[in-house]
Write a structure and sequence with these properties.
135 residues; alpha/beta; Rossmann fold; 5 strands
Length: 135
């Protein structure tokens, strides 16, 4: 099963967390695509940005499922975009929310994201259990 791991990657802590998630998934025989392992933006010119965007979209298109990290006071805008794109492609989505903060008094995450996911998991073991049942 090919997993697209949608996750914020802008701090050292986020990248370390993402790397651990990817490691755990790979140890359970899942193939993982993680943007932070692909070439980063180095120069900021349009062609470079376009190449990174196209690589990301290709990875989404060729994945079987998207696992999205939904931590934070607000879900990362790139993660939300990737989730919407994947949903439009008909890809199943699995949310991972280890953060106890909620979006509102009635929602753990924004309703558009919450309704889109097949499962909203609290830790990586729940993600692995869910994915193992859907192989």
């Amino acid at each position: 099963m090919k997993i697209f791991l949608a996750a914020p990657l802008f701090s050292e802590a986020e990248r370390a967390f993402n790397a651990q998630i990817a490691k755990n998934l790979r140890e359970n025989c899942f193939e993982v695509w993680l943007a932070q392992e692909a070439p980063f933006l180095q120069h900021g010119h349009h062609e470079e940005k376009k190449r990174i965007y196209e690589d990301d979209i290709l990875a989404l298109k060729t994945s079987d499922v998207v696992v999205a990290v939904l931590d934070g006071a607000e879900v990362d805008s790139g993660v939300a975009y990737e989730m919407g794109y994947a949903k439009a492609l008909g890809k199943p989505l699995v949310g991972l929310k280890t953060d106890y903060r909620t979006f509102s008094g009635m929602e753990e995450v924004n309703l558009m994201l919450a309704v889109s996911v097949s499962a909203l998991c609290k830790n990586i073991n729940e993600v692995i259990d869910f994915l193992s049942k859907t192989k």
